[in-house]
Amino acid sequence: MLGFAAVLATPALARIGDDAVTFLFISDVHACRMGMGLSTNCMQEGKTDANLLRHVHALNHLAGKYWPRAIGNRAPHLPSAGRRIGASRGIVVGGDMTDDGGGQTAELEEGTQILQFSHRYQKGTGPDTVHYSVYAGLGNHDLDQDGRPPNVNWYRNELRDYVRITHEPSVFFKAPVPAKSFDPLSESYSWDWGPLHLVQLHRFGGDTRKGAISGLPWLKNDLAAVGGRPVVLFQHYGWDPFSLQRWDSADSTFDDDGTGKMRWWSQAEQQALLDTIADANVIGMFHGHQHETPMIYRHGSLDLFKPKAAYMGGFALARFGGGQFEVALGEATDDHGGVRFTNAFSKPVDQQAKG
Fold it and tell me: Is 318 helix (H, G, I), strand (E, B) or coil?
C-alpha cells in the first residue's frame, strides 16, 4: 500500500470553506496500566502507553493533511480526494477503553486504566493528549469484569460513572462533553453536529448483560424525534465474523465455523436493534471489537465501518457534507503523526425522511 503524504497544517489552515462535519472514530484503546506496570500479556500484545502516544500524535496531526487520492494502487473515488482534512468536531470511542474493567483495584478507588485512558483521551493542549472532545463508549472489556463480593459491580459502575460525568447534562453540574439526550438507565446518549445526529450505544443497542438495562426504548424515541435527519450509530459489536462467532462443539471453542450458541450477542438481540432503527435514516454504524483487520462492509442495508484497534494505531476519518458521506480507515505509521489509509468509502446521502 502507498503511504499517505504527511503535510502538516494548523486546524485554521485545514478548514476547507464549507459546513461539512468531519469527525474521528476509534475503538479498542485497551489502556492496560496496572499500578506501576502492565496487566498480564499487555506488553506482548502491544497494549502499551508508547503505542497509545503514537496513536494520539496521529489523531492530532490529521487536520491539514489530505484525503487520499490513492490507496495501494487504486483510486478510492472519494469526493474529497486531494482536499485538506478539516478539523474534527470530536473523537467517538467504540468501546474497550480499558483492558480490565478500568484497572481493577482491591480497594474502592479509581482504577489505573481509566486514569491512563483519561490522560491520553481527554481534550487537552499538550502533545500527550488528544486535542478534540472525546465521546466515551464502553465495550465488553469495560463492563464484564466482576469485583470482589459484595462489590461485584464496582468496576463496571466506575466506567459507567465516567460516561455519566463526561456526558450527562445536569442543572447542577456542567458535563465536559454534554450530550443532547442521555438515557440514565442504559447510559446511551446522542448529540448533533450540524444536520448530523449521532448516537452512542456502548456494547450494543439493547444490551442487558451484567445488570445493564436495555436502551432500545430510549433509542426508539430518540430516533423518532429527529425525523428524517441522517443518523450515525456507534457501538462495540458488529456483524463481522468475530462478532458473530458461535460455539464449535467439534473443537470445543467459539469460532467462525461453529453452529451453536452465539458468543457475543444473539440473533434475537441483533434483530431487536435492527428493528428499532429500521425507520430511521441511518447512514452508517461504526464499531470495534475485532482488533487486527480494518473493515468496511454491509449487513443488509446497513453500512458498517471498523478500523484497527486504537492501540494498533487504527482510526476512522469521516466527513458528511455536500450530500455525501465519506469514510477513510487509517493507522499511525510512526511516532511523529504519520499515517496511511487502508480503506475508503463514499455514498450520496438522502437527508429526507424515509418513506
Answer: strand
Strand partners, 232: 198, 284
Which is nearest to 49 in space by CA: 35, 29, 26, 27?
29
Cell numbers placing 254: 467459539
CA nearest 97: which of 135, 123, 65? Answer: 135
In order, the DSSP letters of 255-306 are ETT--SSBSSS-HHHHHHHHHHHTTS-EEEEE--S--S--EEEEETTEEEEE
Report the C-alpha gap between 205 and 207 in whole angstroms: 6
Residue 208's contacts (CB-CB under 8 Å, 6 or more residues apart) are 214
Question: Reduced to 3 DSSP states, what percent helix, strand and coil does the chain have, rounded to the nearest 5?
Answer: 20, 25, 55
pLDDT value at position 104?
75
In whole angstroms, give the CA distance from residue 315 to residue 342: 10
Backbone angles phi, psi at 219, to 5 degrees: -60, -45
Whole-model pTM? 0.92
Structure letter (DSSP) for residue 109: S
Q: Which distant-in-sequence residues (6+ apart) come within 8 Å of 224 by Cβ?
A: none
Domains in the chain: ranges and CATH: 18-348 (3.60.21.10)
The alpha carbon torsion through 106, 107, 113, 114 (nearest 10 deg) reads 150
Is residue 193 classed as helix, strand or coil in its secondary structure?
strand
pLDDT in tens, 312-335: 999 999 999 999 999 999 999 999
> What is the chain's Cα-based Rg?
19
Compute the distance between CA of residue 14 and CA of residue 61 in angstroms, rounded to an integer. 11
Task: For cell 482491591, name the residue.
Answer: 106
How do residues 46-96 score in pLDDT, each as one tens digit?
Answer: 999 999 999 999 999 999 999 999 998 899 989 999 999 999 999 999 999
Question: How far apart are the C-alpha atoms of 103 and 257, rounded to whole Å?
Answer: 33
- Neighbouring-strand partners of residue 246: 255, 262
Nearest to 350 by CA among 297, 276, 281, 280: 281
Grid cell in block for residue 229: 435527519
Query: Grid coordinates in use for 340?
Result: 496511511
Quick check: 2 and 284 in contact, CB under 8 A? Answer: no
